[in-house]
Amino acid sequence: YEAAIAAWRESPRSDSEEDDDESDESEDDNIDVEDEAEPEEDEADRGKSKSQKAFDREFMKDPTKVTYAMVSAKLLEISASRGKKGVDRQEQVDQLSYLARVAQTPAQALEVMTAVVSAQFDLTPSMATHMPVEVWRACVANLHQIFAILSSYPNIKMADVIDESKMENKRLDGDGELVPLPEGEADPEVHVHGNLVSFLERLDDELFKSLQCIDPHTVQYMDRLRDELVYISLAQASMSYCVTVEDGRALARVLLRVLEHIYYKTDAVYAATTRIHLEMTKKVAEEAAAAKAQGAAAAEQIAAQEADCVETTGDVPILPEPEWFKLSMIESELPETVAGFTKKLSATIYKLGDERTKARCMLCEIYAKALAGNFHRARDLLLMSHMQESVQQMDVATQILFNRAMAQLGLSAFHAGLIREGHSCLSELFIGGRVKELLAQGVSMQRFHERDPEKEKLERRRQMPFHMHINLELLEAVHLICAMLLEVSNMAINAHDLRGKLFSKPLRRLLDINSRQPFTGPPENVRDHAVVATLALAKGDWQTALDMLLSLNAWKLLPEQQRVETLTMLKAKVQEEALRTYLLTYATYYSSLSLEQLCSMFELSEQTVHSLVSKAMLSGELHASWDQPTRSIVMHNIEPTRLQRMALALSEKVQQLAEANERAVDSTGGMRMEGVDGDDGGDRRSGGRGGRGGR
What we know:
Blueprint: H1 2-10, H2 15-37, H3 50-60, H4 68-80, H5 89-101, H6 106-121, H7 133-152, E1 156-159, E2 190-193, H8 196-213, H9 219-225, H10 227-245, H11 248-259, H12 267-313, H13 338-352, H14 355-371, H15 375-385, H16 387-390, H17 396-415, H18 419-430, H19 435-439, H20 453-461, H21 472-493, H22 505-515, H23 526-538, H24 542-550, H25 560-586, E3 592-594, H26 595-602, H27 606-618, E4 624-627, E5 632-635, H28 642-668
Parallel strand pairs: 1-2
Antiparallel strand pairs: 3-5, 4-5
Helix pairs in contact: 5-6, 6-7, 7-8, 7-10, 8-10, 8-11, 10-11, 11-13, 11-14, 13-14, 14-15, 14-17, 17-18, 17-21, 18-21, 21-23, 21-25, 23-24, 24-25, 25-27
């Protein structure tokens, strides 16, 4: 080190000066590196995140040079970042959508499109909100593209459980690129992981939630209803694929989803639906043809611009859409009627579906047949299925569907004039006063009950959209009218029987409340009209009762022809029950009644009056006989007097008191009254049951 020592002696320097020189050099180097690494941003790049800028540097400069390995690596990177905190979900959707356009093979495009749909579902992570309408429609378009790829390339299969040896990435070379197939060799079978039916069900759930949240009295709700047809078209594409891959269980699930969009529609509404469906199909076909022509023009433009644009200006050329990237729509006509549609779908569901799917399909078919007025067929289906015995063990959604089917079955029975059957269908819905919750058409506020926020939130999630509602006013009117027609004559028969049979507890409760009112005003709602009509009918005043029932606004909800038929039937039923009630109530005040007088009082034909009176005589309700020469009814007047009825009531009360006393004594282990007749009088002193025992 003699030379270094001599040089230092000639020009000595301190260690601190050397450190300063080194730090200055390192800062200059860092400045140069930063200047090289951070060029000036363009206006288009401002506001973009770091991941988006990195994506643009990797893919957007020259998309024609994108390779299979680049797309696969980026897809894996984006999939790994899903769900992490701070990740921009919309940015992921945009990146994946671009990757789908630059995918190198149909199988890779299918894999990317599946990731796009999953990322679109991630945009609405909360269960309380619904997917935005634009995102929903974009998701439908992406699923259409997936089905188009699957239909164009039969060698590609998509399923939940796949054979990993048949995945496309098993044919990669060392650089991550696909090994080309030998010439003349057919495309091998490729498996892609995914569940299309779950995507379809999630879309249906999002459509259902959006209809729950949108105000039904706005134009937006009507526009949203049109998306039902878009969903049905997508479901038709899914059906075709399920038939191709022979997946019966998935096909049954898709058919059930379609059936749940149709079963509650009347034939008039369904006819309008099919007409709009055909118009939409025609429009989509025209748009597809225009897009095909535009794609051909774009391909010619690319051929002319590709060489110049990329090399000179650096602009991104317009990429042509691949063959598998087309929006398709199944062009098939729907059946003409709701009954034909449900029959066509239910036959396949019964054959291929699981137990829950079959049960829901059965309930939808029962509802559709009852809505069409075919009560007896709907009732036979319900009885053969034994659904009423096992519905309590099913999920809440199926129980709601069962309640809706029973409500529609009751309405159908009433329109057919079957009063007793209609009342039996509707009585269980109204007996607890929670018909809104049972039909999922609202949440009623109850007194003396604390509100549970969690339960209330669950109830609101189960609510049916407004266009699927069964009108509660009409339902309550039908239930109370059926109860009135059954209960009025029953009250006349059991007027002095304290333990008489009750047909309708809700109606009896309303009558009791009305009897305790010091002042009753004019009727305002359905219940008031039903009470006034019941009181008038109990006196035999059928005209007042009928006027009260016809003044209900609920009848305006029925179609014109059905309304006329229903009100005509109601008039006949009120007249017949008024006649029966009048005879049972006032029979003791007459020694005989003329047939012509009864016909003029109740405006019924002689044949109808003769039939009703004869039935009352045969059943033992009316103690009378016909006098054919005079065409009159001769009363036998064997009815007990008021004193005799009171004595009978007193004896029944005493008997009930004695039975209750004996049961109380037996339950406490006390003495029985066994020694009254002298049979075992001496046993008590000798330690018999209940005695003190001997000495």
